[in-house]
Amino acid sequence: MNKPNDFNETNLSTTNNLIDMEALLDNLKKEDSRISRILKSAKWMYIILVFSYALMFVINPDKDLTIMNRVAGICYILAFTYLAILFRKYFKDQQKTDYSLSSSEMLANAAEKYKMNYRQLLQIVPALLLIDAGISITAYYANVFVNFEPVYRILLVQAFYIPVLVISFIIGYSSWHKRQKPLRDKALEMLKKLNEE
After folding, report:
1. Region at 117 (left for phi over 0; alpha for psi -120 to 50; beta for the rest)
2. Closest CA to 83 of 49, 117, 37
3. Deepest in the core among 89, 120, 131, 149, taking most CB within 10 A?
4. Whole-model pTM?
5. Which pLDDT tens digit goes with each residue over 38-94?
């Protein structure tokens, strides 16, 4: 037979778990909503860029635009189209979040969703390579770098482009570490408690 103190401690533990669960659920909803807004905005930004670059580099009848200028523009258009489709997919996946699942399923899904996803990073690589190709083509044929040999123009582009990518990754990782990782850690902690009960 449980002692009164044991019974009270059990009730207190259960109450605390419920409070923790509600707080975590509220934070997950807020973060999901924030990410959905970012993904939706990014999708529309890339759609606008697709049409803008199509007007500037493909439809534009300006005779000063060389074939290579148009090829560079097509690289940008393909990259932005790819990113628009990719972010549309991410947005749809984000909208599928179901908070009506059991606590264990919801916590497991949250932990999976908010882990550092290197697969998603790899999915962005084709767009980054297309943008790099566009910038490199532009630099290779540009008149503003007449003091450099064409091959050095491309190397100059890489000298700026690669650090920008590295800095972007660091910023993205820092954001994940600050916002999503604590939610994932809390979800895993509570999932462990549930499994131990």
Report:
1. beta
2. 49
3. 131
4. 0.83
5. 999 999 999 999 999 999 999 998 888 889 999 999 999 999 999 999 999 999 988
- Could you please report the per-residue DSSP string of 141-165? H-STTTTS-HHHHHHHHHHHHHHHH
Between CA 127 and CA 78 the distance in angstroms is 8
Q: 191: closest CA among 103, 100, 101, 97? A: 103
| CB atoms closer than 10 angstroms to residue 46 | 20
pLDDT digits (tens, 9 = 90+) for 142-171: 776 667 787 888 898 999 999 999 999 999
Among residues 82, 72, 87, 86, the alpha carbon closest in space to that of 132 is found at 72
pLDDT at site 14: 55
Closest of 44, 26, 22, 45 to residue 34, by C-alpha: 26
Write out the E strands in 3-95. Answer: none
Burial of 188 (0-12, 13-18, 19+ CB in 10 A): middle
Q: How far apart are alpha carbons 141 and 150 in whole angstroms? A: 7
Both tokens assigned to 6: 């044991």
Q: How far apart are CA 188 and CA 21, in angstroms?
A: 12
Alpha-carbon distance of 59 to 36, in angstroms, equals 33
> Per the structure block, which two tokens stand in for 191?
């999932």
Question: Residue 106 and residue 46: Cα distance in Å, rounded?
Answer: 32
